[in-house]
Amino acid sequence: MVKSARDSVADQATLRLRQHGLRPTRQRVELAGILFRDCDRHVTAESLHDEVSGAGVKVSLATVYNTLHQFTEAGLLRQVIVDASRCYFDTNTGNHQHFFVEKEGLLIDIPGEAIEVAGVPAPPDGLSVDRVDVVVRVRRG
Amino acid sequence: MVKSARDSVADQATLRLRQHGLRPTRQRVELAGILFRDCDRHVTAESLHDEVSGAGVKVSLATVYNTLHQFTEAGLLRQVIVDASRCYFDTNTGNHQHFFVEKEGLLIDIPGEAIEVAGVPAPPDGLSVDRVDVVVRVRRG
DNA sequence: TCATAGTTTAGAATTATTCTAAATTGAGTT
DNA sequence: AACTCAATTTAGAATAATTCTAAACTATGA
C-alpha cells in the first residue's frame, strides 16, 4: 500500500498539531488538513463545517467551534472582525490587512508591507496599542 | 409656563428628525435627544435602551433597534464594527477612526485628519473601495 | 373629528455561538 | 493486547443579540 496525497496532508497536519501541543485527534487532523493544505484561507465555523461535512467527514459543529478557538489560542489562526453577525478565522497569522466584500462575506488579504498607517495618536492614558486593523470595505461595480 | 432645557433639547431633536424626513414621534424625539444632546456618543441597542429606560422613558427594545437603523439610513448615525457579538452606533458620522478597548466595550474617536492610510492596493477587478476603517485595538496597561 | 399610513410594541422567531454532561478516544502503562 | 484516564467529542440545551410579526396606537393632513 502506497502513501496517498491525502495521507501526506494528514501527516503534515498531525505534525503541526503536535508542534503546537495539540493532540492530533481525527477531527483536528481533518480540520487542520483542510485549513492548512492551501494558503491564506478565510473561514467561518459554519463554512468550515459545511466543507468538512461535504468531504464526507463527520465532525460536529461544536467541535468545529472548539477547534477554531484552540487553533487560534495556539497561534495557528487569527480572528478577523469585519461583520457584526459572523466571526471569521484567517489561516494567515502574519502582518496583513483585508479587503472585505460585505454582500458576499468575502475576505481578501492585503500584504502587511503594502499598507502603512501613519499618524495614529498616542492612546489615552493607561492604554497601550495591541494592534492596528485596517478593513478596506469594497463592493462590486 | 416657561420652556425648560429639556424642551429645547426636544425641539432640536424634532427639527433634526423633520429635516431628515423622519416623523418626530415621542420615542424618536426621546432617543434623538439623548443621542445628539452631547457630541460623539457610541451606543449599542442595549446600552441606549438602558439609558432611555433609566431616564424614566418607556421605549421598547424593538423600537430602539428600529430607530437606530432608521437613523443610520438617514445619515444621522454610523455603524461601527469592532466586536463580533455587539453592534455599535456612532453619532459622529464624519471622517474618523477608533481606538477600541475590547474588555470594556469602549470606543474612542480618532480624528480623521490625524490618521493616514497609505499604500492600499487597487482592489481586485470589479471591486471599488467603499471606505477604509481603522481600528486601533488597545488595552489597559 | 376622521381617516389612514406610519410607528410602536410584546412576544415569538432566528442566528450565531457557547455550554453541559455523557460518551468516546488517544496515548502511555502494564 | 488489554487497561486506564485525562483529553476530546458530541447532541442537544442554553444564551445573546437581533429581527420578525401582527395587532394596537398615533401623528398628520383633510
What report would you give on this structure?
The structure is a homodimer of 141-residue chains. Chain A is an alpha+beta fold. Chain A has two domains: 5-80, Winged helix-like DNA-binding domain superfamily/Winged helix DNA-binding domain (Arc Repressor Mutant, subunit A), CATH 1.10.10; 94-138, no CATH class. In chain A, 35% of the residues lie in helices and 26% in strands. Chain A contains four helices and seven strands. Chain A has a three-stranded antiparallel sheet. The first copy, chain A, has a three-stranded mixed sheet with strand order 5-4-7, with no helix packed on it. In chain A, α3 packs across α4 (61-73). Chains A and B meet through β6 and β7 of A and β6 and β7 of B. β6 (116-118) of chain A pairs antiparallel with β6 of chain B, so a sheet runs across the interface.
